[in-house]
Amino acid sequence: MTSLLTRLFHPRRAQAAHLTFTVYTREQCCCCHKALDILRDRQARYGFAIDEVDVDGDPELVAKYGTEVPVVTLGGKLRFRGVVNPMLLDRLIAAEIRQA
């Protein structure tokens, strides 16, 4: 486990630059805003991309996700639904970095 000082002075920004998280959201969804805040915080640390998709713009996505947003996928695989757990997100990112 790395110390706080190590993380502050040796950011791992570029290590996850190959990752793109897709977040399916709705405009007036407070859970979506919280999920995006968590992802953006980790984005600043790890350097991955975030692709935000508003489901209200596509009837198929509304039918698929409805009120289950936010939905977060990575590489087309569902990773989070309804809420993003920061600890699980950190573990997921670490695992993806190790696999790269």
TrEMBL record:
InterPro entries: Glutaredoxin-like, Thioredoxin-like_sf. It comes from the Bacteria. It holds the Pfam family Glrx-like. This is Glutaredoxin. It comes from Aquisphaera giovannonii.
